[in-house]
Amino acid sequence: xxxxxxxxxxxxxxxxxxxxxxxxxxxxxxxxxxxxxxxxxxxxxxxxxxxxxxxxxxxxxxxxxxxxxxxxxxxxxxxxxxxxxxxxxxxxxxxxxxxxxxxxxxxxxxxxxxxxxxxxxxxxxxxxxxxxxxxxxxxxxxxxxxxxxxxxxxxxxxxxxxxxxxxxxxxxxxxxxxxxxxxxxxxxxxxxxxxxxxxxxxxxxxxxxxxxxxxxxxxxxxxxxxxxxxxxxxxxxxxxxxxxxxxxxxxxxxxxxxxxxxxxxxxxxxxxxxxxxxxxxxxxxxxxxxxxxxxxxxxxxxxxxxxxxxxxxxxxxxxxxxxxxxxxxxxxxxxxxxxxxxxxxxxxxxxxxxxxxxxxxxxxxxxxxxxxxxxxxxxxxxxxxxxxxxxxxxxxxxxxxxxxxxxxxxxxxxxxxxxxxxxxxxxxxxxxxxxxxxxxxxxxxxxxxxxxxxxxxxxxxxxxxxxxxxxxxxxxxxxxxxxxxxxxxxxxxxxxxxxxxxxxxxxxxxxxxxxxxxxxxxxxxxxxxxxxxxxxxxxxxxxxxxxxxxxxxxxxxxxxxxxxxxxxxxxxxxxxxxxxxxxxxxxxxxxxxxxxxxxxxxxxxxxxxxxxxxxxxxxxxxxxxxxxxxxxxxxxxxxxxxxxxxxxxxxxxxxxxxxxxxxxxxxxxxxxxxxxxxxxxxxxxxxxxxxx
Length: 692
What we know:
This protein is an alpha/beta fold and about 700 residues long. The chain folds into 5 domains: about 30-215, Rossmann fold; about 220-290, Helicase, Ruva Protein, domain 3 (Orthogonal Bundle); about 325-410, Arc Repressor Mutant, subunit A, CATH 1.10.10; about 525-630, no CATH class; about 635-690.
């Protein structure tokens, strides 16, 4: 079956406030309109319409009171009205002048810009300026009353932080204009949570107290009229069960704009389905539950699983955002954070001229910015003002259509929380940079790392220098940036120095370990030498025992020889003598061989064995060993000069110099040939035990 899309006028306007042109769709406030007109009928010409966000303050004045005045509902003032509706924004007097000159009677120049500048300058001159100008133009206005509607009056409290003088001039102008004997009326709309801020301006609390009107909540019957009456005008219907459900599930703050936006979306879905009747399925599609956590009552939670009206705005805004390109999403974040700011724990709108927003994102991104703005101000969305029917110019103010957007769109809430943290760090770094100029310190490495992460985040999300101007501060972003860079440089220098010291410490440790290894090697070599010496001594002891044994044998042999000589025949004497000589030669030769083996390791022991061999049998080899040993110990040169014991003596590498150390605290270098001291090194406070 082919689906037919119905093309019918939308009976709902969505999130933005009702305007005078939508008065025909404005229902449920008849009694409240009469009450406000009654206040204006009296002597009070300054009225403050107060209420929580989303209670319909602006719509009550724009689509209720203003059309009634044009119909002549205020008999004392007639039916001819010059109505100026504006917001204070960032230039309250200029914004007032721009609205006034829409009536040709206020134009003093053919050039609109010149006329605005001239009129705003005149309004700043005196609290009576508007009254005097009106009196001067009495003939032009011909008895026409002037109504000034200052919507979102709470913006003046934010502006006062930037320009106290103009803010006070603006307030004084409003109060005096409404109190003079001219038909000038002032109606302000303000969130009731800003009541405490009134004391910032002299006379304002008293004026509000006299002209206060607290916007009532709508009752069940009035809410049903808001839902069904606009539908009836276009021939549409809605499921009665759904009507009761909507009335019974409205949730306090933002209830009316949320319901109006949800109804507009449900009507569009019904028309797309070829129906002129809103059904339960449309409600479920528009108000489906989230799958991701959203901010509820100040904390991030996953909402309940049932469709709820409060989901309508978040679902729709997220749907538009998700349809943007990645660059469009990047610009959308910067756009909304430029239009909303969090001050003292409250999120407030911050209307900006298109030109200012272009400066935020850069001229190169102008077209992408316009695409994003158009997506969120489209007729089916209505999240931004002005509506899509108005051509955007550089001076056009771009604004959030209703505060419920930044309270109900979870992504924007997350952005605002991140922005709040970034702004808090900006303030911290600016203050520390300012203190450093006055003699304060630099950032340490931990704060440098934190500042680096912060700058990376800010650079990724926005143009830092432009962004920082929103928050002011004791120093500029460039000065703060220079302070952070200077801190980073100092931390780097300190780290380099620390690394140098650590490197030197490691080198010193390496040298210590090498020295220990050398000492251990020398100790091992000494132990090995001692082991070899012990082995030599053992062998020497064995040799001595062998010598003693052989002496005994020789003695016995001698006795036997004498006995044999005395008993034997003379013929045997010569042979026995020769045999004994050969035996002694063998013993002497064996001792001589031992002496030769020991000559390398123990020359002293070798000499003793050679002497023993020579005593047994004075053979040439033993005598040669004895002479060689005695020749090694001959005194060639005597080195004199130390006063006390000499503790160390070693040859230098050249073999011509001897280095000695002594208990007298000196180290002396001697010439080997002459025995003369070449150099005496003094300075030790005690004996020197070793020198190389």
